[in-house]
Fold Helix-turn-helix domain-containing protein.
Amino acid sequence: MNLSQRVKELRCRKGLSQELLAEESRLSLRTIQRIENNESEPRGDTLKRLAIALDTSPDEILDWKILEDKGYLTLMSLSALGFLFFPILGIILPLIFWILKKDKLKNANELGKSILNFEITWCLLLFSYFIIIFSGLLGVIMGYLDNIVGPASILKLYIPVILLYIYNITVIILSTIKVFKNKRHSYKPALKIFK
């Protein structure tokens, strides 16, 4: 199905005539006719107006043109493992992958947002825990100030950090496997920073 057929199908599915679509999208009737006759291709503002009038997204209209690259999506998902070297790398690397292909590959936009939301949430949890530890608040809460500081008590402080790292690795690996198998990935919990 080419783009002109796609626009026509979406218009008919919504029960609009070319005139009504032109009116709702604030485009000229001639523009709508040219698009549906495959004489021109909507881009930029025209594409956005069509998408709004057809109650869909520009990606949905262009979906037939967007390539699928399972290898790139798998690599994007694995790039979140950069957090093992430095926590912020778990955000920066997927962000680069996302910016490069978010509009060019099918599912890259959704996957990138999911990874970024999850990694930002994870970093916030990790840094919040370190702030609590270094402020001495955790020691007061857990009564560590009365105990002699030794290897066992220090290890107890880092158990939540170790668990956070294990959880992050597990989520990334399981989600990467799902991405590779074209199944629905699950990066949770995650704050909705990128919507």
Observations:
- The chain is about 65% helix and 0% strand.
- The mean pLDDT is 84.
